[in-house]
Amino acid sequence: MSAYYLTKTGESKADLDSASVLNFQGKQLSNQEKYKIGVAKSMLLDAKIDKEKGKREVSLSKTKEAIAYAEKNNLTEQKGDGYDEFSNYYDNSNVDEKIRLKEKALAFYKQSNSKKRQADVLKDLGELYGLTENTNKSLLNLKESLETYKSINYKQLQSVYNLLSEAEIQKSDYEKALKYGLLAEKTALAMNDNSLQLSSIYSNVGMVHYYLRQNNEAEEYWQKAIEIAKKFNDNGYVRTIAANISTMLIRQRKFEEAIKFIKEYKAKYPIADQEFEMRENYILFSTYTIIKQFANAKIYYEKLKNHYGENAEKNNNSLSLLRSFSFYHYQTKQYADFYRTATLLDSFAKKAGNTLIQSENHLVWFKVDSTQGKYLDAIKHYQLYKNLSDTIFKGEKSKQISNLQVAFESEKKDKNIDFLTQQSKLQEVKIANDTFIKYVFIGSIVVLALFVALLYNRSRLKQKTNKKLEIKRQQIDEQNEQLKKLLTEKEWLLKEIHHRVKNNLQIVISLLNTQSAYLDNEDALMAIQNSQHRMHAMSLIHQKLYQSNNLASIDMSWYIYELVNYMKECFGTEKKINFNLETEKVSLDVAQAVPLGLIINEAVNNTIKYAFPNGNKGNVLVSLKNIGENKYELIISDNGIGLSTNFNIEETDSLGMNLMRGLSDQLDGSFDLRNENGLTIQITFIKNMEFEASAENPTTL
Question: What CATH fold (topology level) applies to the domain 567-698?
Fold first, then answer.
């Protein structure tokens, strides 16, 4: 219970206070029962509560105490919990210490065979190794986490798939990255996970499409991601995805638009995150370098260099930063700085297994060596670039590198022969290309002619099909119109029937009223009056049915209100008896509404007549409520004189009482009478659902 209030959504002081009180009680009980695991859990939970309250130092001290207690009592799983929590006191600037503590926690979880906690920590380690760009270790931990989750049939795997996708992006294995990204999306949607995590998943899938140069797909996913981030008011996520979109604009050579886009989002969605500010500075630096605005580029280069160091040694994502530094030095012809940065970048990319960055680095290196006249080195770097790029996209090995090597060696031996040979080859290629283009052109005309013929044939078939469909549509429309007409007539007839039944009942009431004018017998007059009330109870139902659009059921809360008001007016009890109506909105069909209305009529009638003699005042409760699945309870109670002590319901000759019992049987319900502090009539019955089923499924009518 304490953990529930601690992890509850929101930051309420009342929730934290509840967590503290409950945890204290749990710790007391654990001490009383000498339950050491409970004590260890309470100690660690106490530390977490203080951390949530902002008492970081106190919380850290209590975490260490919890670890010491678990070690003293050899509580293996609790030691794992302690070291796992301890790791959370280190931020990503001290990743190595965080990893060390997580590894320690993992060892204890494996000893205690705590599968779920093992999987959780393995996932955390995978993410942390990803931050250090140790992609291989990241993937090992994440795959082990995935298998552990699956071994306990744990379904919420979207976060693991998402981290696997990120790791494969770092390795430039975009086929696997896309596979894991789509699995993360599929799992999140299947688990109805519409949290901020879905924004991260969409962002990563968009990034894979971006690297595969599938711009439309990347933009589509990033738009979905940024909408979710805006919905959760997470400015950090919004700015992250906006930065990704700006890189798309840069790729499309919309450089000024990209710069404007970043600056607009920076102003509209402020965040206090220096690291993220540096990421945006990195994009602006790269953009200004590409468009050769070196004065602006230098401003951001100095900011990045001062923050991360000249060799980007303080940056967890040093690959991208070193790549931009290298390109900047190349563009500004600072070749000494370029060679230093390019060598470091190649080492880091090789360690991270990022083949794409390696290949791009060697391509720029080839250009610098060519500019410096280092032709042998240039060829070597071009060979590395081609081998790596072919590996990425799984294409056939290019012959350009070997041709370039031969050309270079031939140039030293006999430049004239080499020149003539090249000219001859170019001429042959040109002739071959011209011949190829001619055949392609002829073939294209033949294919086009066949395609036009096929289109014409398809067009005629489509016209015939459309004509048949149009005839069928007209027939269906005619049938629908006939059905609508029949339905309207049916509804009109039903309303007319209810109207006429109501009018006939009113005529009977009027006839009884006229008959009573010729009677002097008080019992006869009372019998006629009772009959009139019963007629009115039934008449109200039919009146409501023909006045409403729903011909199948009647709202009993409205009905009870109208019926009780009618009874009050008939007997003039407004000042004498106080009626309290507690009715839920219940819809019943006519078959149940009529007997229930007659029961209420009889009960209220008897209460008004007999419960409060000699002008006594009193209270009457009429309640109709749901007490279970389709089960309802009607209560009519008063605080009057009640029934006589020798009253026997089985032997009574009261028409009203017998009528209520008979109507209860008609409802298939139970009838109960309690004579305590007045009289209480309780009727329990099951609501008839047949008319509702018919309304939901018209085909059964």
Answer: Heat Shock Protein 90 (3.30.565)
